[in-house]
Specification:
This protein is mainly alpha-helical and 51 residues long. The protein has helices at 2-11, 15-25, 28-50.
């Protein structure tokens, strides 16, 4: 059932809406941690691409 719901949302391009809504409900501290991890991951990926 959950898989079907996910696939339906994906087909309707709703997955980003759900993620954004969940993200916005997090505390500012948790949002900051997630953003920091995203930036760290992007930097590491960039460094790997250069090597």
């Amino acid at each position: 059932m959950n898989g079907t719901l996910y696939l339906t949302a994906k087909e309707m391009q709703l997955e980003n809406i759900f993620y954004e809504e969940i993200f916005n409900r997090l505390s500012k501290e948790k949002q900051s941690v997630i953003i920091g991890r995203k930036a760290d991951f992007a930097q590491k990926a960039e460094n790997m691409a250069v090597e």
